[in-house]
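COURSE: Structural Biology Practicum
ASSIGNMENT: Worksheet 4, Part C
STUDENT ID: 0417
INSTRUCTIONS: Below are two proteins. For each, the amino acid sequence is given first, followed by its structure token string. Answer the questions at the end about the second protein only.

PROTEIN I
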Amino acid sequence: MLVIDASIAVKWVVEEQGTPDALALRSRAQLAAPDLLTAECANILWKKVRRRELSKEEAVLAAGLVARSDIELHPMRALLEPACRLAIELDHPAYDCVYLALAAAGGWRLVTADERLLRKLRRRKPARAVPGAMSLSEAAAAGS
């Protein structure tokens, strides 16, 4: 089981850098995410409409495809306290840390295209308990 965030799920429905790796990951691994994923994907699609990268119709179609994807969604309530701790410790937005908290709770790894989050995690001291995270390209290489 791997935890994915919205930066990965959107690549399933919008062609962008990393789309082939995201699709391959989807076909070869069991995937989980906090139910926050649905709102974050909708927000990304809205931004793409505002930037004229997608039409309104394309965004709505993409949202429906994400909503029907085969991903195990977990409720966020139990993740709020550990996500808050991680956000404070990393000095990083709490909504990203919800994904890390789910990965830690399940003993899984997070796959993300969020380079800023990955940099922050890699700067941490190894002695501290850190939920595992890897980039999409690392996940693709591991699956090859």
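PROTEIN II
(use this one for the questions)
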Amino acid sequence: MLRIDCPFCGKRDYDEFTYEGDASVTYPAIDNTDQEAWYRAVFLRKNPRGPHKEYWYHSMGCRMWLEVERDTLTHVISSVRAAHKGYAKSMTKKASAK
């Protein structure tokens, strides 16, 4: 079974999380009206074999967005970190204040 080691909650079964997509995609600027650029970013993605960065949302836990590096062939997870550095700092401060 796939287990994700949440930096805030510890190891949890994957069904506590929601897969939220490819973390390696660079989207165009929000005000970019180039439809071809948006089409390429949203629909023309690679389906990598091997190590790949993904976004996961801890929906049944701390509700944090995580960036997970997972091997798509073996499902071995090599790293998990907060998707946004500011959130990680905020959570660390809250935990130390208790």
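ANSWER KEY EXCERPT:
Q1: The mean pLDDT is 87.
Q2: The helical segments are 35-43, 85-97.
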